Structure formats: structure tokens, C-alpha cells
Amino acid sequence: MIKQGISENQVEPIYIGIGSNLGKKRENIDRAKFFLTENNIKIIKVSSYYESFSWPDKKKPKFLNIVISIDTSLKPLNLLNKCKEIEAKFGSRDSIRNSPRKCDIDIIDYGRKKINKKILLPHPSMHNRNFVLLPLFEIDKNWIHPISKKHIKTLIFSLSDRDIRSIKQI
């Protein structure tokens, strides 16, 4: 009998960000979580809700965001397609980039993989976004960026004071 080490049994976590800045924001996020679970995606951890200004136009409605860790057998591209299908249920399929929307789902990190074909992982802007870093830190205080190898605390401390002050946990 071969004895397996602890690290061999551990699955690298997958992190997804869910946001909404139109309609009943919290309800939209909760519905998105439900739709994920309907597609054989198991939610492991859920952050608190965080409210932040819209980006890049702060005049648009504020966003409510969470980060979740999940377990799924879906490969990264299949998971992305499933997320896009769920966004479409909210009418987000044809919206203009960065426009207000009822549901926005992004894969933040898929098992610490670096992928640069058809899908970019980890999410290429996540290290600059307060609404990703703070909820991610809440559910994984030891997360390390797969490319830069920077600890999440380092990434948070590199945010501007304005970025830190402009977000609130709800």
C-alpha cells in the first residue's frame, strides 16, 4: 500500500468574484450563487458583502461584491462559459464593458494555475481591485498570487489609501 502525503490529497482552491450594481444587488448575488450550485459547483466559503464605487466611472451605481471559493470538476474554460451563461440569465450577455449590470461573475484564481489561452488566469486585474482583494483575504488569509508570488497582504498594502477607504464591508 502506498501512503499518500497530505499535500497530495489537497485540492487547490478556485475563487470566483460575484458583483452587482443594478436592481436588488444582494438578491442578484444570492441568485447567482444558487445558479452556480445548480451546475454542480460546490460553494466552500463565502466572504462578506463589500460595497465599492463603480469602476471606471464612480458616478454610476455602487457595486456590491463577494468572493467565494468553490469546488468543481469543470475545467477553467467550461467554468467561464457556465459563468457567462449565468450572467446571461440576468440580461448581462450583451452589456457594454464596465457598464452597470445585475450580475458580473469573474474567475479570480483557478487552482493557482497560470493560463493565457482563451482565458486569462489568474484574473489579470485582480491584484489592483479592492473589491477582490479584501473579500479574498477574508476567506483565505494565506493566498499568494500565482504569477507575482506576492502574498495577499502585500497586494492589499499596495492599494492606494483612497482604494482602502472607499470600500466598506456590509
Report what the structure shows:
The N terminus is likely disordered. The radius of gyration is 16 Å and the shape is globular. It is of the alpha+beta class. The chain has a single domain, classed as 7,8-Dihydro-6-hydroxymethylpterin-pyrophosphokinase HPPK (Alpha-Beta Plaits), CATH 3.30.70.560. The chain has 6 helices and 8 strands; from the N terminus they run αβαβββαβββαααβ. Strands 1, 2, 3, 4, 5 and 8 form a 6-stranded antiparallel β-sheet that branches. The protein has a two-stranded antiparallel ribbon with strand order 6-7. 31% of the residues lie in helices and 23% in strands.
Extract low-pLDDT stretches. Answer: 1-9
By DSSP (H or I, 4+ residues per run), the number of helices equals 6
Indicate the CATH architecture.
Answer: 2-Layer Sandwich
How much beta, percentage-wise?
15-25%
Shape call: globular
The mean pLDDT is 90
Distance between the termini: 50 Å
Radius of gyration: 16 Å
Helix and strand composition category: alpha+beta
- State the fourth-level CATH superfamily: 7,8-Dihydro-6-hydroxymethylpterin-pyrophosphokinase HPPK
Helix content: 25-40%
Comma- or semicolon-separated keywords:
6-stranded antiparallel β-sheet, disordered N terminus, 31% helix, 170 residues, Alpha-Beta Plaits, 6 helices, single chain, two-stranded antiparallel sheet, alpha+beta
